[in-house]
Amino acid sequence: MSGHKVLGPTAPSPSLVLQHQRQLRSKPQLAGCVGPRTQRKLARSSITPSAAATTSLEWQEIEETVSSNGHYPFKVFPGAKPAISQPNTLPSELASLTTSTKPVVLIRDTNAWCPFCERVWLALEEKQVPYDTVLVSLQNKPEWYMQLVPTKKVPAMSFTDSNNQREVIWESKDILLEMEDRFREVPLLPADPSLRQEALTIMEDLETKHDVGAAGFKFMAGGSMFNRTEPRDPAQLPQFQAEFERELRWMESTLAKHEGGPYFLGSMFSLVDIMFISFMERLVAGLPFFRGYSLKDNPDFPRISEWVRAMNQRDAYRRVKTDDYTYKLLFSRMGSMQPYVPPLQVDEATMEARRTVAARITKNRTEILADIMKNSGLLPFAVASNNTNNNSNSSSSTQGVGPVPTGAELIEAVEFHLRRLCSLLLHGNPGPKAGDAYAKAAGAAALAFFRNRATSPRDMTAPEADEFRSAIDELLKDVY
């Protein structure tokens, strides 16, 4: 249900929107911009781009460089990981909605993972409307927000009305339509009445008749995405795939109605595209990883593939989208989903190289383990942890992280990751991850060291070395 509330007065500049749009159009390119101090240093030392990698910049020089590129200062949001947030972020309190001097204040989730928040954020960037942002934790929504928004969901947006008062609106589609009425210089709906109605009908059908996103997430998760107690039956996957592809065919035919461009309305990018991309972005990223199913360059859905490519070329979308790997991590952790592991299909020569590497590691594991512990830098930690535990009457801990591991536990963690490496080489699947952060840290350090320690032809042949390093590179991405 849509709705709005009116807050206290504010006083934004009447020409603020136009000024912001002009600034965006005249913004200099970032490439090649460095601060004056950095320019002088480069001139004095004649550091070429290739040689610059041999020097280490000081933090002050880095700050000068990025500030000269027009970057806004980041503000820390308590509890954020990492501890940064988007520019123009205001404190998470009701007063921020009335003290802001921008035409709108977007209230969204802290991690910028909410697809409905992304819709509104993308529209703001496309329409070049200046805005402030207030972040709300989805796990611990503040009381002021619970009272302000009856649905208690994000996003919400605070607009300045004609009486210089703040009007709050929620529900992503209602916010998008309100923005379209208020900020018309960059339209995201056609002026032609029939085309406009067509766009609104597609948006309505997406929400009421053809929930492409829900069907896609069910197929990707093999059932409910976030209900971990609901059983997932692999036998239902063909049914879920068929239901998803039925909705994809509707999307494909809808895109095909207009020629002259890749978007739903042909050459015009519109709110329809924004409504779709919020969930399609997540499916494009997750389906290959969890189902081995690609929506990029899919011959069964050529218009969808073209649309995905066109979306990824839009500057505004590139500023708000999430990268594919983040989604893989997010769905794995929040949805308890396992990656799709196809049968290991390599030629016999490659497979023989992989088997030989695994055999070398297995036969020499005692020496390899000793070398890693001695020369990677892990041994002092093992000794120190033994001393810490021996000198303590109770289980030691570090800043609430948990018990400090013993030296034997660190060695066990390294050995565990060597076994994961062999499993990946032999079967294409490393198996389960380590259970605690200490074991993961030790494993990552050991693998990174071992990767550059072994050489050919001393330790293995060149083809074996290629497979060895390729496997470690893949495994390092799966440690955490």
UniProtKB/TrEMBL annotation:
**Highest taxon of source:** Eukaryota
Please name the source species: Dunaliella tertiolecta
Protein name as annotated: GST N-terminal domain-containing protein
- What Gene Ontology cellular-component terms does the record carry? cytoplasm
Residue ranges occupied by any GST N-terminal domain in the UniProt entry:
104-187
Q: What Pfam families does the database record attribute to this sequence? A: GST_C_2, GST_N_2
Concerning PANTHER family, the annotation shows:
GLUTATHIONE S-TRANSFERASE, PTHR43968
Under the heading Gene3D superfamilies, the entry gives:
1.20.1050.10, Glutaredoxin (3.40.30.10)
Q: Which residues form a coiled coil?
A: none
Q: Which residue intervals define the domain GST C-terminal in the entry?
A: 192-343
Q: Which residues form the signal peptide?
A: none
What is the organism lineage in this UniProt record? Eukaryota, Viridiplantae, Chlorophyta, core chlorophytes, Chlorophyceae
Q: Which PROSITE patterns match?
A: GLUTAREDOXIN_2, GST_CTER, GST_NTER
Which CDD domains does the record match to this protein?
GST_N_family (cd00570)
